Fold each of these.
Amino acid sequence: DTAVSQTPKYLVTQMGNDKSIKCEQNLGHDTMYWYKQDSKKFLKIMFSYNNKELIINETVPNRFSPKSPDKAHLNLHINSLELGDSAVYFCASSLDSSGNTIYFGEGSWLTVV
Amino acid sequence: AQSVTQPDIHITVSEGASLELRCNYSYGATPYLFWYVQSPGQGLQLLLKYFSGDTLVQGIKGFEAEFKRSQSSFNLRKPSVHWSDAAEYFCAVGGYGGSQGNLIFGKGTKLSVKP
């Protein structure tokens, strides 16, 4: 059983398109995250949700919009994709936001051409 | 502001040799510290974590790390490296935005293993 699963794993799309990455966790956790790993392997938090409410919104363009329909899901929508959006996007979850082990999904490799 | 520094971008060791990967952090309170490993084309796997208590923590795959408050360090060690340990290693501290659950990552250390 995959604890944090995200789809698709690979996505190649053209500039200007709108795309979504889905994430689901079956751990019963309250907190979910999106992290971005750039071409230099640097990982940085984008968003953090606790019980479906946004608690961290890092300096991310408005084209990126997370949506959490319930505690187990946190989807990432990206509008008007740009070349610079090419990266690996990791979904993650933890029991709560107070400091617990964070479990990562396997990543979604997004390439914008 | 919180930060994590991994001074070594790339390290090469021989199989069977010992390994130490360095990590220094900057954080105002008692930190939550983590080491993650990422194999090529794969996601992030937690190796070990430190929240409190014993400053020497044991992890999976024979790794251990020692928290040294006086040096603001959390170095990762393994006594004998295996070829399968070749990967990218990330140190992280929890606490971004005031929440321990939000991780700040170092830039990673790539480990290569010579036969």
Amino acid sequence: SQQGEEDPQALSIQEGENATMNCSYKTSINNLQWYRQNSGRGLVHLILIRSNEREKHSGRLRVTLDTSKKSSSLLITASRAADTASYFCATVTGGGNKLTFGTGTQLKVEL
Amino acid sequence: DAGVIQSPRHEVTEMGQEVTLRCKPISGHDYLFWYRQTMMRGLELLIYFNNNVPIDDSGMPEDRFSAKMPNASFSTLKIQPSEPRDSAVYFCASSLGQGLYFGPGTRLTVT
């Protein structure tokens, strides 16, 4: 079963605009991670945020986490055509290292 | 490092045949994961290992699926007998516990 649900399912923006994707999950987490997947490729790890953190930055990426609402958001600023990909959130719960992925958001950045 | 290596990249087989997928994780990583991705079900965790020991195989669909990790540098996922509904992209990923590194995947088509 899917732990995370991304919203929106698809997003189309113009180059230079910001893109925001949201992720909701069901159970308490140890950490939440965001991944990117280009068409026909494997997933690439973008950023990890722990349950006791509220915000993290990495280059043009900003991730927030609200554990009271069981939600996270990924903001990509000043988007580029190369950012076109699917973006997935994934959560780690319990005592192990089991990573459960959400359904993904397809982002298209147009020139 | 070459990253996670998977073979074959593409596999087309007939229903009832045995299929073996192979994975070489990144050297030094102590976690290894097998995921399956389809349009209908998204990314599903099949099984993961820690220090070559299976930790969670609750995602393995049925007895037709088996996975082994005989040493730290090699893992196999075997399907016997294969069925058309097994058609998917199978990803191997390795980790040191903070973020997964995915291989390019094996696209399996069972006719």
